[in-house]
Design goal:
This protein is α+β, with helices and mostly antiparallel strands and 937 residues long. It contains 17 helices and 46 strands. The chain has an eleven-stranded antiparallel beta sheet with strand order 32-33-34-35-36-37-38-41-42-43-44. It has a six-stranded mixed beta sheet with strand order 4-5-3-2-1-31, covered by helices on one side.
Length: 937
């Protein structure tokens, strides 16, 4: 990217993750034939998502535009900005400039709607940051300490229609601004607290009393995630005239499967404690449960009353559950249980409706659902299904499923998996090689693994290519590359050491689920348009290779659903894929020459990723309560199919006022008239007073009340904090009663001054961090490898201590009054964890540090380090670990600085440090704190 090199930009993703850590996550008619029976009105669209004012033919990005690797933070970043009264839009120029007019309008369009619905005036303008540090889009929002939205520019995954097919920034803005409104809403009492605190305090671990101040000023940020995501999905759907997940085929299928399989449905507490941890969908369950519950509330009590629950009128209850009872007159748990009973009956009726016609008989190929599964390929030599699998209790892997016994064989674990797709996978049976992508949440790598030996090799690092498929005619790999918001078809010729960009589509045109015909003459993909039209298209391969626009051979449209997962049959004349055309995801056969299609299954839940076999059978994935389960069945043309009633359809039929929620095209927003300024973003210049509030700390057993002050920029890249407290109640000298701290934090630097440093957690000993005296400490940290979960940090610090009584790192050891310290070190970790895990289950970590202390005219060097190594056990979510530490110290033996000190578990009764402190170097259970002194260990 011009004006923005890879190294300075190499630091933004981790900083964004930290800054927004509290944030809560968008045809040709068929040939003449008898279509499947008409379905109920599963998608009600009052005003379809009007074709937005897309940028005028933006230039396709050059191959070298953008960073070469995913950044961990934002040192020296060069962000441009556009300002309005309500918006500060930050972006990278020139790569993202073409998007800014539309995103500015989409944000304003959504904001105007939410202001009216919530009776809400935003407390401050919202900062919106665009970034392109991942190959699939995502978004996040927060309202404390300030209103902010983070938007990825990459296309979003539409696997299994888990995201609505509308224009992504239209949908994302509707969704994320709903989050901002839901959390920022305020009444006069909240406003009084915000004025008192001079802002909206964000909870800080250093000062946990800030949780109370956060609740007083922004009570709606202290809610479960299902509340936030459920309401946002509800708004997102009806603001788009019914196009959204609250009226989507995937959500209906999930609940249908839960009822069919008698799967566990969680209570509100169980959802947040277990449901988002042990289920294969993890955090997505907050969306699934939340949106369903909000739809039930709207159906039962009406949309207006449902929205009123989210509002914050004067004299209303602050706690979300108390506010629920205030609005609905009933306890939340009681209505939740009522919804579950309703859901079971609703889905039983849907299952009966589908079963009016014979359901497809399947032969299970595995004993249970296997969570998420990638596209699969049958290896005839071993009679196994080569695919990637990710389910709770086991780290996701590329492997083989024996089609006779159902036994799984692991080939290689996958680094950086996706939900539902796991990875993008291709298979060359002749070369005995499977190709797959890693780092799917960042910049994707392409890796090859030998399916006989399991040997793995890296082909392309950070290539940003997915949807890979093998062209058997010339052994080239084809794929789709995402960069700067565009999608590009690429060709990777053998030996796969580089790639050629073949064709870049216009903004808003998103191909996915790529496949190549057996003879290499055709290439096909599911294809989304900016106006939400979805189809499957077949192009001539030679037209792409010639560098011209893709020459279309055939197109399949099944509105309002998305044709997905279509692959060529062995004959090369027909294709098999799936679609929610009748409300349930069924398999369709498409004849390329005639353009005719037939439904060849009748699923009670849904089928995905069909694989045509030479004997005419199909292998597909059937959705179950435990995820996708490979099955085999014989395709049969279905003239009649049962169909599904969507809960969203019942809601809008019962409450047609939802049809008036459609916000229409953002093109109507006069953005140019609203712009008040343009320029560059400077964290230092943007820094302003953010909050101030009372605190309490501990010092030598005394309670020390005090006050905290904080300044920061909207992205929290540059922060200054100050605190002062007093110990008035215990017997101590006056000069020991005052405690102060001043700190400056940037993305790499942490500089602070301490005077008689006090600490909140000293109130809950036995570990004490407070120290008498003064200290000036400057620390620097530089991430040199950022390849999650791999990370290598280099760090250094210098400190000057005066007036000490106890050693800075040993609370029970007398200290020289003055110490000067230098420290330098490195730390590395590479941890893996499976779904449902509560701790790391595999990996390696090491630390190496060198210290040099100077006191009383003598120098005291130390060298020490640690090494951690763990391997998983056959039992789900279990592992065995080795933690080793070693060190040596030098200098005058009589000095306390010439030793290391060990003892105790070192846990306080209330603590912000890791619970498992026994793993750390200083811990030594069975001895009191600092009881053991050693020069070498």
């Amino acid at each position: 990217m011009r004006g923005f090199g890879a190294r300075p930009r190499a630091y933004l993703a981790a900083a964004i993750a930290t800054a927004l850590c509290g944030a809560s996550g968008p045809a040709l008619a068929q040939a003449q034939q008898k279509p499947p029976p008409p379905q109920p009105d599963t998608t009600t669209i009052e005003e379809p998502v009007t074709k937005p004012d897309k940028p005028a033919e933006p230039t396709a990005p050059a191959p070298n535009q953008g960073p070469s690797h995913v950044p961990p933070d934002a040192s020296g970043i060069d962000l441009s900005r556009i300002d309005t009264k309500d918006l500060e839009l930050l972006y990278f120029d020139p790569a993202q400039t073409y998007l800014t007019p539309y995103i500015g309008r989409a944000f304003t369009n959504a904001l105007d709607f939410h202001k009216k619905k919530f009776n809400w005036t935003p407390w401050e303008r919202t900062t919106v940051l665009l970034k392109d540090f991942g190959d699939y889009g995502n978004a996040a929002a927060r309202a404390s300490p300030n209103n902010a939205v983070l938007l990825d520019v990459a296309p979003l995954s539409q696997a299994m229609e888990t995201f609505s097919a509308g224009e992504r920034f239209f949908t994302l803005n509707n969704h994320e601004v709903a989050h901002v409104a839901t959390m920022d809403v305020w009444n006069q009492r909240d406003a009084s607290w915000r004025r008192f605190f001079r802002g909206k305090p964000m909870p800080l671990q250093e000062h946990p009393e800030s949780v109370l101040w956060s609740y007083l000023s922004t009570p709606k940020t202290n809610v479960p995630r299902w509340y936030l995501e459920g309401s946002a999905v509800f708004f997102e759907t009806w603001m788009a005239g019914g196009l959204g997940r609250a009226q989507g085929g995937y959500d209906e299928m999930v609940w249908r499967a839960k009822v069919r399989d008698n799967d566990k449905i969680y209570s509100p507490l169980g959802l947040e404690s277990e449901g988002v941890a042990v289920d294969f969908q993890v955090g997505v369950n907050d969306y699934l449960y939340g949106s369903r519950f909000f739809s039930y509330l709207a159906l039962t009590y009406g949309p207006e009353r449902t929205v009123d629950w989210l509002r914050r009128p004067d004299n209303s209850k602050a706690f979300y559950a108390a506010r629920f009872r205030e609005v609905f007159g009933r306890r939340l748990d009681e209505v939740w249980d009522e919804w579950i009973r309703f859901e079971r009956e609703f889905q039983k009726a849907n299952l009966a409706r589908l079963a009016q016609y014979p359901l497809t008989e399947t032969q299970p190929l595995s004993a249970k659902g296997l969570g998420s599964i990638s596209r699969g390929f049958v290896d005839k030599r071993t009679n196994s299904l080569i695919a990637a699998f990710r389910y709770p209790g086991t780290i996701g892997f590329v492997g083989g499923l024996d089609l006779a016994s159902g036994k799984l064989t692991k080939l290689q674990e996958i680094k950086g998996m996706m939900l539902y797709r796991v990875t993008s996978l291709a298979f060359d049976e002749d070369a005995r090689t499977a190709y797959y992508t890693e780092d799917n949440g960042a910049f994707r790598d392409i890796v090859a693994v030998n399916v006989d030996t399991g040997k793995k090799r890296m082909l392309l690092k950070d290539a940003r290519i997915g949807d890979i498929v093998l062209n058997r005619a010339d052994k080239s790999l084809w794929g789709i590359r995402h960069q700067n918001g565009f999608a590009t078809i690429v060709r990777i010729p053998a030996p796969y050491s580089g790639f050629n960009q073949i064709h870049t589509f216009k903004y808003g045109q998103i191909p996915f689920d790529l496949d190549v015909s057996p003879d290499g003459s055709m290439i096909a993909a599911s294809f989304g348009e900016v106006n939400a039209d979805q189809s499957m298209r077949v192009w001539r391969m030679d037209s792409l290779l010639a560098g011209s626009d893709p020459q279309e051979i055939a197109r399949l449209s099944l509105p309002p659903s998305v044709p997905e997962g279509f692959t060529f049959a062995p004959d090369g004349r027909t294709m098999y894929g799936t679609s929610y055309y009748t409300g349930a995801s069924n398999v369709f056969r498409f004849d390329i020459a005639s353009g005719k299609y037939d439904a060849v299954s009748n699923a009670s839940t849904g089928f995905f990723r069909p694989i045509a076999q030479p004997d005419g059978s199909l292998i597909a994935y059937e959705y179950s309560g435990q995820g996708l389960q490979p099955v085999r069945f014989q395709p049969q043309v279905r003239e009649d199919l049962g169909n599904v009633e969507f809960l969203g359809t019942r809601v809008v039929k019962t409450h047609p006022e939802l049809k008036q929620w459609g916000v229409g095209s953002p093109a109507r927003v006069p953005l140019d008239e609203l712009i008040t300024g343009r320029g560059k973003y400077s964290a230092a210049r943007e820094r302003k007073f953010a909050s101030t509030y009372p605190i309490v700390e501990g010092y030598k057993g005394a309670v020390s009340p005090g006050w905290y002050f904080h300044w920061e920029d909207p992205l929290q890249f540059n922060q200054i904090s100050a605190s002062i407290s007093v110990s008035p109640f215990d017997h101590m000298r006056f000069k020991d009663r005052i405690h102060a701290k001043l700190q400056l934090k940037t993305l790499n630097w942490d500089v602070k001054y301490l005077h008689n440093g006090a600490d909140f957690y000293d109130l809950f000993g036995p570990v004490e961090r407070s120290r008498r005296g003064d200290a000036v400490i400057a620390a620097y940290n530089k991430t040199v490898i950022y390849d999650p979960p791999r990370q290598l940090d280099l760090f250094a610090s210098g400190a000057v201590y005066t007036g000490l009584e106890r050693l800075p790192n040993a609370q029970n050891i007398a200290s020289p009054k003055s110490i000067q310290s230098l420290s330098i070190g490195a730390k590395y970790h590479d941890f893996r964890q499976s779904l449902g895990g509560v701790d790391h289950e595999k990996g390696i970590a090491w630390r190496l540090m060198a210290d040099l202390d100077h006191a009383q005219g003598n120098a005291f060097p130390k060298l020490y380090g640690g090494f951690d190594y763990g391997v998983p056990l056959p039992i789900a979510n279990s592992s065995v670990w080795v933690y080793a530490h070693a060190g040596t110290a030098a200098g005058t033996r009589r000095s306390p600085l010439a030793a290391f000190y060990f003892g105790s578990f070192r846990n306080n009764y209330v603590d912000d440090r890791p619970v498992k402190r026994y793993r750390e170097m200083e811990s030594f259970p069975g001895f009191s704190i600092d009881e053991i002194a050693a020069r070498r260990f």
